[in-house]
Amino acid sequence: MSDAVMTRREWLMTDRPQSRLQARLGRAYLTWRRFAANKLALIGMVIILGLLFVAAFAPLLAPHSPYIGDLKNARLLPPSSTYWLGTDDQGRDILSRLIYGSRLTLQVVVLVAVIAAPLGLLVGTVSGYAGGWIDAVLMRITDIFLAFPKLVLALAFVAALGPGIENAIIAIALTSWPPYARIARAETLTLRNSDYISAVKLMGASPMRIVLRHIMPLCISSLIVRVTLDMAGIILTAAGLGFLGLGAQPPLPEWGAMIASGRRFILDQWWVAAAPGAAILIVSLGFNLLGDGLRDALDPRGGSQ
């Protein structure tokens, strides 16, 4: 190993950083080392990066149209050199539909995380810092949401809002925020009486500023881990809604809806339902492995490797 590499490593791992940038880069480097030591987490990261790549370049990667099929000549064909994963009952290429379906999967995951995580973070930090009747009211509302299974509650919201991918995203987000609120509240309860927060109070900071600028940033790492681990559940819930006809509507290539359309042919044309099922399995596994790696890497008690 060259002296330049050793010098950069020593600069990143020094106990006495000379600037905030050096301290942040050092923490990031240690976090990456802990993450990279987990081989399964690296596999999960590769799977998710592959999903992002496929979704970004879907028009270039898909060999056929995901919406237009050939009912006369290509209906329910088995996997072949022309149709790598076979065709469905409408004569459409299953591989092309899976590739374009990755966009819908990422859309659901990202939008649910963007809606549910900040909502849960806000409710949890306000509840934990304010205490009293505010804490009691917010936590009882959280308990009401937690009392119902997520899929059942999402079904109720979609039934009220109407079927469609947009309403499915809203429904999943409305059922996903309570665990984040619980985590943020627990973190806030451990922080609100700390010397750091007491010093901020002595400087005259308002409760809103304390929550927004000093408590919320300290809760983000735990929240990121929980959100990553919940991605698989979000994908399965979205697939479940699509399977029941309450999520993405035809002809959108949503993986759950593809399984629903292929269940009629499961005995003879097994590939119609097996291909989207395998896609859901692989992506869910990737998010779980990535979440486990992030949990270990972001754990402040983990120490350096």
In short:
With 305 residues, the protein is mostly helical.
Question: Shape, please?
Answer: flat
Stretches with pLDDT under 50, minimum 5 residues: none
Along the chain, the helix and strand elements come as HHHHHHHHHHHH
Structural class: mainly alpha
Roughly what is the average pLDDT, rounded to an integer?
88
Number of helical segments with 4 or more residues: 12
Question: Helicity level, as a percent range?
Answer: over 70%
The major pleated sheet works out as:
none
The number of strands is 0
Radius of gyration equals 23 Å
How much of the polypeptide forms β-strand, as a percent range?
Answer: under 5%
Through-space gap between termini: 18 Å
Q: What does this protein look like?
A:
The chain has 305 residues and is mainly alpha-helical. The chain contains twelve helices and no strands. The chain has helices spanning 3-12, 20-36, 39-56, 58-61, 94-130, 132-146, 150-161, 165-191, 195-202, 207-243, 255-262, 271-298. The radius of gyration is 23 Å and the shape is flat. The model has no long low-confidence stretch (mean pLDDT 88).
